[in-house]
Amino acid sequence: MTPLRLVFMGTPDFAVPSLRALADAGHEVVCVYSQPPRPAGRGQQVQKSPVHRFAEERGIPVRTPKSLRNAEAQAEFAELKADAAVVAAYGLILPQPILDAPRLGCLNVHGSLLPRWRGAAPIQRAILAGDAETGITIMQMDIGLDTGAMLLKDAVPITAETTASSLHDTLADMGARLIVEALDGLAAGRLTAVPQPEAGVTYAAKLTREDGRLDWTRDAAFVERQVRALTPWPGCWFDAPTPTGGVERIKVLKAEPAPTSTNNARKAAPGTLLDDRLTIACADGAVRLTLVQRPGKAPVDGAALLRGFALPVGTRLGDAACSAGN
User: Three-state DSSP class for 129?
Assistant: First the structure.
C-alpha cells in the first residue's frame, strides 16, 4: 500500500467507518471537512457531527465551512496539497476548483449501484422501490450529481427483513472496505475509472416528513416497505380520529403483511381497521401494524394501542376519514 495524503469530507454516521478505515490503513488524513455544528435532539443543543467528533478523537484538524464556492475556501483547500479527497455523505456541492485540487481527484463513497439512485436518499429509495439488491459505488467525482466515472462496486441483497437502519450499517462498512481498496488501486495504477452507463439512471430525491405518511390506497407490499425504508427518518405515521372528534398522529415503527384470507381486506375500503390487532386494509391486501407509538407515549404493539385508544373495527383511518370525523 502507498500511504497517501488525504482530505476527508463527510458528516453523518454513514461516513465514520470510511474515515476510520483510511486512518487505520496508514493514510495521512491531513484535514476533515464536515457540516457545521447544529442544534439537535430534544434539547436542541448545538452538536458536532459524528465525523467531526471522530476526527477530534483521532487528533485530525476539522474545518466546517458553510460553503466551498468562495475563493478563500478554495485556496485553503488547495493549500492542503492532498493526493486525494474522499467524500462520503458530506452535504455540500464541490465546485470545480475543489474537484481539481487533489492530484488523484475526489472520490465519492455512494450508497447505491450507480447509475441507479443518484442523489440524496439512495438507501431508503432502494428499499421503497422493492429493489432486489443495492450496494456501494466508489466514484471519481465530477461536477454533476453523482454522474462521475466508477472505480469499484459491490452489491448486497435487499430482503424482506432489510430495514433502512440495517442497510445503512451494512453499506457503511462496505464503503469503508471499498474506499481503501480503491485508493490502493488508483495509486498503483491498477484501477481505471469506467463511465456510468446512460441506461438505468434513477434519482433518489431527498426525503421529507410528508414521505412518511402511510397511504392506504397503495398496495400492502408498498406500505410495508415504506415502514422499513423510512424508519427512523423521516418516520411513518397515520392520522386516527379521536372520540372527541379530534385527530391524533400515530407513529408506525414496524409492520408486516397480513393474510387477506382472514381479514376481509378485499371487501373493505383502503384505510379500514379490520381487527383488534391493528390490521389495516390497503388497495391490495392489508398490513398489520406491529409496533406503534402515540405522541408522548412508549411504543406498543398494535393490539395494546387499540386497548387504550377507542378505535372500533370498521373505523376509517387517514385524511378523508379524519376530516369526516369517522
Answer: coil
Per-residue DSSP letter, 159: -
**Alpha carbon separation from 204 to 146, 169, 232, 282, 296 (Å, rounded):** 11, 19, 17, 25, 32
Q: Rounded CA gap, 322 and 214, in Å?
A: 14
Lowest mean pLDDT among 57-61, 226-230, 262-266, 299-303: 262-266
Cis peptide before 232 (omega within 30 of 0): yes
pLDDT band (50, 70, 90) for residue 42 = confident
- 299 assigned binding-site residue: no
DSSP states along 195-245: PPPSTT--EEPPP-GGGGB--TTS-HHHHHHHHHHHTTTT-EEEEEE-TTS
**pTM, entire model:** 0.93
Provide the residue type at 137 as one letter: T
Known binding residue 115? Answer is yes
Q: Return the pLDDT at 2.
A: 84
CA-to-CA dists, residue 129 to 176, 212, 286, angstroms: 25, 14, 18
Q: Could you tell me which residue, 310 or 90, shows the higher pLDDT?
A: 90
User: 34 a known binding residue?
Assistant: no
* CATH numbers and ranges of domains, the chain: 5-204 (3.40.50.170), 209-316 (3.10.25.10)
Does pLDDT of 324 surpass 90?
no
Residue 311: pLDDT above 60? Answer: yes
Q: What's the average model confidence in pLDDT over 184-198?
A: 95
CB 218 within 8 A of CB 283: yes
Task: Give the sign of the dihedral formed by CA 47, CA 50, CA 53, CA 59.
Answer: negative
Residue 67 is assigned to a ligand binding site: no
| Range 113-134 burial, b when 16+ CB lie within 10 A, else e | bbbbbbebbbbbbbbbbebeeb
Q: How confident is the model at residue 68 (pLDDT cuts 50, 70, 90)?
A: very high
In angstroms, the CA 3 to CA 115 distance is 30
